[in-house]
Amino acid sequence: MNCKCSNKLLWLIIILGVLLRLTDVAFPDFATDEAQFALNASAAQPPIGMFFFWLAQTIFGASIISARAVSIAFGIATIYLIYKIVLEFSEKKAALTAAAFASIFPTHIIFSKLAYLSVPLCFAWALTTLMFIKANKKPHDSKLLIALFLSSVLATFIKTQGLLFPLLLLIGIIIESIKNKKPLFTIHYSLFSS
Questions:
Q1: What does DSSP assign to residue 108?
Q2: Which of 62, 78, 63, 61 is nearest to 18 (CA)?
Q3: Per-residue confidence at 43, pLDDT binned at 50, 70, 90?
Q4: I want to staple 95 with a disulfide (CB 3.0 to 4.6 A). Which of 16, 86, 118, 174 is the partner?
């Protein structure tokens, strides 16, 4: 598949994702948890997650659509991240197929229309996965290591459960190091070299 054709197809997939996430976004009315997020009344969530709702409502005004715009935007961005993740270890056709499935996946569409932090967390985990794959391919690239760290922190500060995935990645690295009889933590990255 040539580059122009695959780029057009990716845009069509993303547009489909946008349309599916914008359809009937104002219905049903707010659930109790959504209303707490929309009003920034939920003290149980980390600051960045609540900041997204505050920012959307500051820019677009206080409404059900502006509160849900946070999940819609992160849901659409997640489609592109899934494409990039699959592209790291497969061909464009497989990456486009994965993006198409993400675009039409019913649960992701439904949660992308609600003012919850689940979809922004899904985005942060996808970003962490992409940075992990890239950093694993180039372990001496300090920029990728910093991006991996920042994406992990972002996941943690979006939702309290955000810590779980980066923690599982770390446990996986430790198990792999033990299994391959490598030192657990070796500082050999270019960030620390002169």
A1: H
A2: 78
A3: low
A4: 86
